[in-house]
């Protein structure tokens, strides 16, 4: 597992200077699509409350619903594998594949499989994994991780696809063109058809697990998930424990939120429910059905100030609306989960010592919370991680001293106001009529990338506030 979260600042600097990446990041219409989808559903805000309440109720009774789900899976002839750690989950998947005699494994898009490093683990043991999601397929050819949890190849342009195809598909005719998205789809479909037919095992993620029926649910726009779970002899569902919901009705409520928040669709093109292995009267489906339930740090979040993060339904609305993600892309975050949700989840799973930069990679504009379909207070939890970072002395010494100095003044209002007036006066003298500073001692971190506005006449904020209040009183 390769974690580069401590290098966020360096990653972000490279991303800002990458012209091809910036071109890809500028080409998104998710804001407008989501806004139209939300406007077309008058009860959307009420539905957000419902989604939040469903997830809160489930998390408060997580052990009960997980046991109920497992019992239903087993009653339908399936097998449940309880895995506390990533190592246990990798071992469980490998054992299932070995028992099936698998040489080729097809995979539907699954972020938990990225978290666990399933592909590398299978390859190391002589089993060939083939990604069937279009974005994941091109990333597998390029040996790159996803940069987005919904659109994994969000950081690529059309020319990147063509370049990768020509490098990996060595039998491509020289006159083959890739001008349109359908050209890319046709090429990937041709190559993947053989893998679908050859696979002994299919691995999918799960958007939801339904305790009432023992069903797993996946949503896709390409249909690859259906082929992955119905054609091979063995279907493996790889899911983290917070994906469980109590009932079918709860699941459909959350599905109404998911696609609208993720892609601006009313519903994804394919929404597939799987319940156990093929029955005697079924025309297709797997002979074996396995569910690998993964904890990997999530149960430790229950009952803490980070429990609300487990409500996440992986729609990516937070990153689609985040100005930091929009400027740097997902790879800058250094691990599987980018954007605001990653800035909270990654420290929870890998430790704040490895991911302390991420909760600081936020402007705290609040967009992420305002668009979250289950109302996760992401800025609040990022503040909690900043507090943990400070408590553990993970912040630089200069930053800690500066905060300590500010805290001393903040506890002494008279001294604070005096210092503010003196500082304002000094800046005014240094400005000498200029509108901004291009350099200022102690402010190099700011002026390195942008000008620092010079103070305007009129005094400190408190002075202006006092005058305004007196004026209003008159």
TrEMBL record:
Matching SUPFAM superfamilies: alpha-helical ferredoxin (SSF46548), NagB/RpiA/CoA transferase-like (SSF100950)
InterPro entries xref list: 4Fe4S_Fe-S-bd, 4Fe4S_Fe_S_CS, FTHF_cligase-like_sf, Helical_ferredxn, LUD_dom, LutB/LldF, NagB/RpiA_transferase-like
One Pfam match: Fer4_8
Coiled-coil stretches: none
Sequence ranges assigned to domain 4Fe-4S ferredoxin-type in this UniProt record: 302-333
Keyword Transport: yes
UniProt region (Disordered), positions on chain: 448-474
Keywords: 4Fe-4S, Electron transport, Iron, Iron-sulfur, Metal-binding, Repeat, Transport
GO molecular function: 4 iron, 4 sulfur cluster binding; metal ion binding
Biological process terms in GO annotation: lactate metabolic process
Keyword Metal-binding applies: yes
Record-linked PANTHER family: LACTATE UTILIZATION PROTEIN B
Name this polypeptide is given: (Fe-S)-binding protein
Lineage: Bacteria, Pseudomonadati, Pseudomonadota, Alphaproteobacteria, Acetobacterales
């Amino acid at each position: 597992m390769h974690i580069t979260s401590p290098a966020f600042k360096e990653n972000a600097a490279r991303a800002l200077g990458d012209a091809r990446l910036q071109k890809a990041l500028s080409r998104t219409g998710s804001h407008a699509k989501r806004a139209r989808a939300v406007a077309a559903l008058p009860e959307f805000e009420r539905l957000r409350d419902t989604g939040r309440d469903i997830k809160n109720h489930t998390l408060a009774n997580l052990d009960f619903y997980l046991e109920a789900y497992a019992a239903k899976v087993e009653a339908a002839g399936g097998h449940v594998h309880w895995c506390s750690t990533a190592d246990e989950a990798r071992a469980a998947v490998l054992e299932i594949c070995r028992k099936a005699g698998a040489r080729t494994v097809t995979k539907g898009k699954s972020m938990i499989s990225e978290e666990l490093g399933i592909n590398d683990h299978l390859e190391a043991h002589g089993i060939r994994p083939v990604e069937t999601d279009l974005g994941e397929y091109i990333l597998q050819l390029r040996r790159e991780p996803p940069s987005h949890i919904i659109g994994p190849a969000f950081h690529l342009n059309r020319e990147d696809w063509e370049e990768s195809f020509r490098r990996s598909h060595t039998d491509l005719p020289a006159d083959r063109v890739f001008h349109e998205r359908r050209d890319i789809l046709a090429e990937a479909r041709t190559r993947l058809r053989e893998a679908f037919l050859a696979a002994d095992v299919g691995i999918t993620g799960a958007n939801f697990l339904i305790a009432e029926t023992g069903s797993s649910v996946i949503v896709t726009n390409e249909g690859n998930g259906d082929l992955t779970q119905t054609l091979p002899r063995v279907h493996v569902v790889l899911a983290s424990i917070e994906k469980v919901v109590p009932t079918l009705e709860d699941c459909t409520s959350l599905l109404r939120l998911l696609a609208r928040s993720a892609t601006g669709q009313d519903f994804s093109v394919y929404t597939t429910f799987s319940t156990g292995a093929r029955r005697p009267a079924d025309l297709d489906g797997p002979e074996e059905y396995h569910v690998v339930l993964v904890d990997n740090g999530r149960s430790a979040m229950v009952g803490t100030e980070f429990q609300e993060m487990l409500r996440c339904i992986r729609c990516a609305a937070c990153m689609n609306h985040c100005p930091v993600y929009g400027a740097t892309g997902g790879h800058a975050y250094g691990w599987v989960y980018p954007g605001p949700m990653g800035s909270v989840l990654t420290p929870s799973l890998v430790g704040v010592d490895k991911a302390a930069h991420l909760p600081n990679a936020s402007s705290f504009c609040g967009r992420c919370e305002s668009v979250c379909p289950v109302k996760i207070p992401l800025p609040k939890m990022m503040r909690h991680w900043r507090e943990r970072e400070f408590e553990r002395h993970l912040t630089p010494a200069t930053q800690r001293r500066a905060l300590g100095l500010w805290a001393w003044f903040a506890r002494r209002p008279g001294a604070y106001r005096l210092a503010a007036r003196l500082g304002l006066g000094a800046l005014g003298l240094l400005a000498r009529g200029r509108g901004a500073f291009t350099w200022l001692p102690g402010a190099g971190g700011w002026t390195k990338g942008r000008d620092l506005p010079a103070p305007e006449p009129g005094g400190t904020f408190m002075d202006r506030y006092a005058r305004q209040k007196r004026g209003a009183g008159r």
